[in-house]
Amino acid sequence: MKVVCSIAVLWICLITMWQSAGRVNAEGCLKHHNLTSAQVQAVAPSPPVADVPVAVKCYSRCLIQDYFGDDGKIDLQKVGKRGSQEDHVILSQCKQQFDGVTNLDTCDYPYLILQCYFKGKQSGTIAS
């Protein structure tokens, strides 16, 4: 599978690279949500979550669904040794920012986590 990465979807590509062979893949998620790579790439990396198409947000959830715990939030133990120590620190900070938010739709949380992760990777810090 070839994943084309642009700045607009770097956050999706970074998580996709963590996935183990045989797990849900980007192509399967695109198909499941009736999206094309071009549609996903057309989404800017930092719009308000309300401005992002539901299919794109749910595509984000599909990409990282293996990393959710029973509470529907990212479980760092499930992320395991994938990614660097910096990745884990950034994800931990993103979890602190979004795990307590209760008024999110099912696909908003994963999109926000990935958006936060993307910003953290680019800047080295997490903005609240």
From TrEMBL:
Keywords: Signal. InterPro entries: PBP/GOBP, PBP_GOBP_sf. It comes from the Eukaryota. CDD domains: PBP_GOBP. Residues 1-26 form the signal peptide. One of its GO terms (molecular function) is odorant binding. Coiled coil: none annotated. This is Odorant binding protein 18a. It comes from Drosophila melanogaster (Fruit fly).
